[in-house]
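Q: Structure tokens for this one, please.
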Amino acid sequence: MKTILIATDFSQASRNAAVYGLELARALNTKVILFSSYLPMPLPVMASSVIDLAEDLKKSTQQQLQQEEKSINTGSRVTVETICREGVAADAILEAAREKKAGLIIAGMKEGGKGTRRVLGSTATTLAKKADIPLIIVPEKTKYIRISSIALANESDLETDADDHLLDSLREIAAQFHSKIYVVRVAKNRIKATYETLNRPFKLIRILRMLDPSYGTVEGKSVAEGLNHFIEGYHIHLLAMLPHKHSLLERWFIKSATRSVIFETHIPLLILPDLHIG
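A: Here is the predicted structure, written as tokens:
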């Protein structure tokens, strides 16, 4: 990849994600786009006033972006371009990422709160559902460390006609850091664990063969619990997911009653999109 787009709303979670993204960009030798959106509130005023308000918001957002870039990009030697656009955050982020041919989007995740914000903020949730570009969601307190181990969680093998480029971003990150790759599934008991062990995802493993992945199962009452144990036991630095049209993502994290458990480990989540989205 040549470009990483980092989305920010200037919150602490976004700033932490931006710092993480800059370090990752430096390791991957890529350019960074620091992006923010703005959306004027509709008011019963004259059209000229609405235009003035939009221009003021644009200038203010651009100034914030420039200040943010100066405060976080100290000594990293990463080329950073700042861009702001009017629009709903998730849609504006995706539009800019496509236009700039970004190979990866990075967004922050705020901790605490209720509902889906325990796991994914509203913008991050929308990005996870709609993005056709790989997305890394960084928990608010996660600090950048060298990605020496990656767990790819999946529940079924790839379709026979799946695009071989589906895992390109994962392969690039793993190759750069010489990461150990684990393909892991969660089983509720030993019988199911034995079944999963015998039914390996052969196409998925074949695509990753140059990285010499290890395949295994872990027992857990829930997927979140099982993955949490695996992440802690194997010192995983990045969790990757193949949502398969997002049913997996929604079932595990957005709709699950245990959705907050998985992120107690505070590691980034790489969501690899279905390349047929859109």
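A few notes: The mean pLDDT is 81. The longest strand covers residues 31-38.
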